[in-house]
TrEMBL record:
The keyword Transferase is assigned to this record: yes
SUPFAM superfamilies: S-adenosyl-L-methionine-dependent methyltransferases
Keyword terms: Methyltransferase, Transferase
InterPro entries, A to Z: METL9, SAM-dependent_MTases_sf
GO biological process, one term: methylation
GO MF terms held by the record: protein-L-histidine N-pros-methyltransferase activity
UniProt-listed Gene3D superfamilies: Vaccinia Virus protein VP39
Protein's name according to its UniProt entry: Methyltransferase-like protein 9
Pfam name, any one: DREV
PANTHER family linked to this entry: DREV PROTEIN (PTHR12890), PROTEIN-L-HISTIDINE N-PROS-METHYLTRANSFERASE (PTHR12890:SF0)
Keyword Methyltransferase: yes
Length: 210
């Protein structure tokens, strides 16, 4: 795709500016040290509204989708495009992906689903009105599935791929991204299961909400 486009450069600059805010970074450091005792890194990032993933810009996604032939689905009379984003996080990448599909197939009706294991990130997805499903296999005939930086963070990558295959439409498309070199790591907090309900209550009272 050549050099980074304007949107990517803007994201890099925004990240640089955020990193240069000394007091904000100090607060994040202290909060992370406390919250990490009983929460996963993903939950901590969600509460502090930091660590949003960036993979591709809208235009870069659109280029890949064009090459995948996704537009042909709409041309074949399928006005509704069912999209599933696995491990959607806070939904920032999901939003870029959906925007790219909208630009590629402007007359389509996009039905969006997402999966996410972090309860904090689920609340971020709810803010963006993204429907979260508990299990992938509750869906069927999905036209497009994105699995971005997830396979190396799940317990059984092969089982996940089988699940994805089972819900894809016969002419569906799958986009997979992996961080290289491959390093398998499943996130788990020592006290996560015991304290999850307590964390939800604390969060509902407005603590650590930004």
């Amino acid at each position: 795709m050549g050099s980074p486009d304007e949107i990517t450069l803007q994201w890099i600059e925004q990240s640089r500016l955020e990193s240069s805010k000394l007091w904000l970074q100090l607060w994040h450091l202290l909060a992370k040290a406390f919250l990490s005792v009983f929460m996963t890194q993903t939950d901590v990032n969600g509460i502090l509204r930091r660590g949003s993933m960036y993979i591709l810009s809208d235009n870069q996604f659109q280029t890949i989708l064009t090459n995948s032939g996704l537009k042909n689905l709409a041309n074949n009379g399928n006005n509704t495009i069912r999209v599933l984003d696995i491990g959607a996080g806070d939904g920032e990448v999901t939003a870029r992906l959906v925007n790219a599909i909208s630009l590629l197939v402007p007359d389509s009706n996009i039905t969006l689903f997402a999966t996410e294991s972090s309860w904090v990130m689920r609340s971020r997805l709810a803010e963006k009105q993204i429907q979260v499903v508990e299990e992938i296999n509750v869906l069927n005939n999905v036209d497009f599935v994105s699995c971005l930086n997830v396979l190396d963070r799940c317990i059984d990558p092969l089982a996940l791929l089988h699940e994805i295959y089972s819900v894809l439409a016969p002419d569906g498309r799958l986009m997979v991204a992996l961080v290289l070199p491959y390093s398998h790591y499943v996130e788990k907090s020592r006290f996560q299961l015991n304290h999850k309900c307590l964390c939800k209550q604390i969060y509902s009272f407005g603590f650590f909400y930004f």
